[in-house]
Amino acid sequence: MTTIDTPAAQVQRDWWGRPLVIPPGGGRPVAYRRCTRYIGVLDDRSALERWKMRQVAAGLAARPDLLAQAASAAGDKSILDSAAGAAMEAAGSSAAATTGTAVHRLTEQLDSGQEPVVPEAHRADLEAYREATAGLAVADIEVFVVDDSHQVGGTFDRVMVHRGRRYVADIKTGSIEWNAAEIQMQLAMYAGSSRYDPATGARTPLDVEQDWGLVIHLPAGQGRCDLWWANLAEGRVGLEICRQVWRWRASRHRFNRRYTTVLERIDAAADVDQLVQVWADHAGEWDDTLTAAAAARKKELLAGNGPAGQEKEKEIEQA
Which of 45, 57, 199, 250 qualifies as a FRET site for 67, CA 20 to 30 Å off? Predict the structure, then answer.
C-alpha cells in the first residue's frame, strides 16, 4: 500500500458543530449541515431508540443507586435525564464507540506511514486491515469537502486508488447490516463534493469516480476486514429525497384557516345577504337555536340602517 501524510483540514465550526464555510462567491462564512445530519432525515431511528431503552433498563438494574435517583425525581426532567445518561454508561453504551474510534485512528496512523502502538486486543484488526487493503493505494486521508448545492460539509476517510482509478472510501468499525442506504448516500455526497480550503474558501475537484465508492468494514475486535462496493447512483437518489425533505421543512408551515362555528358565522355576518348564505350553507343542521341567533343578528343589522333597514325588513318578510 502506498502511504502519504496529509494533515486534516482545520475547519471552524459554530455552536452546534456545523462547519462554517465561505460561500462560493466569497463573503462571511455560513453554516453548512454535516453530512450525517443531512441524510439523517431519512433515517429510521426505531431500532436505535429501542436499543437505548434496553441500555437504560440494563444500567438501572446494574446500579441500584441510579434506580433510587430516578425514583426520587418526582417528575424532575433534569434528574431523570441524569439518571438515564448514567444508566446508559453503566450498561457500556459508549464502550463500542470509543473502541471503534481508537481502531479508526490506528488505521489512519498506519496509512500515514507511522508504526502505531497497537494494543494486543486489536492487533488482529490492524493485520486484517493491512491484508484487505494491500491492493489499494492511499491517495489522501481525512479529506474535508463541501457540496454547495446541498450546503453540506464533511470529512471522509480516504481517497483510494484501485487499478488507476480514484475512489472515495470510508472505514466503518461498527455494524453495516442495517445502514447500507445511509452509507451509499454518504459516499455519494462526498464523491460529488469539492475539496475545500478553509483558509481561502477555494474549491478544487476531487477527481474521483462517481459510480462506485468503497466501504472498508473493519468491525472492531473481530480481527477481520471486508471491502464492499457502494452504488453511488442509488445514493444520489436518496440525496435528492433529502433535499426535498429539507426544503419542505424550511418552508413556513402554519394554520391559516380557522374552524368557525355556525353561531360565529351568524355573529360575523355583515349584512342580511350573508345571513341568508349562512343558512344556505348549513340548512341541514339548522335548528331553533340557530334560528333565534339569526333573527337577533338580522334585527341588529337592520336597526343599524334606520328607515332603510325597516324597509329592507318589510321586503324580506313579504318575500
Answer: 45
CA pair distance 50, 59, nearest whole angstrom: 14
- Gap between the terminal Cα atoms of the chain: 98
pLDDT in tens, 243-274: 999 999 988 788 888 899 999 999 999 998 99
DSSP 253: -
The total of structural domains in the chain comes to: 2
- State how beta strands 152-162 and 33-34 pair: parallel
Whether residue 288 sits in one domain with residue 166? no
Contacts of 87 (CB under 8 A, 6+ apart): 55, 56, 57, 58, 59, 60, 63, 66
Which amino acid does the sequence have at 11? Answer: V
Nearest CA to 220 out of 52, 91, 55, 104 is that of 104
What one-letter code names the amino acid at 91? A
100 & 129 share domain: yes
Q: How far is CA 207 from CA 21, 68, 171, 222, in A?
A: 21, 58, 20, 34
Rounded CA separation 18/151 (Å): 11
Beta bridge partners of 140: 159
Nearest to 220 by CA among 98, 136, 113: 98
Query: Pick from 146, 160, 209: which is nearest to 1 by CA?
Result: 160
The most distant pair of C-alpha atoms in the chain lies apart, rounded to whole Å, by: 105
User: Domain holding 235: CATH number?
Assistant: 3.90.320
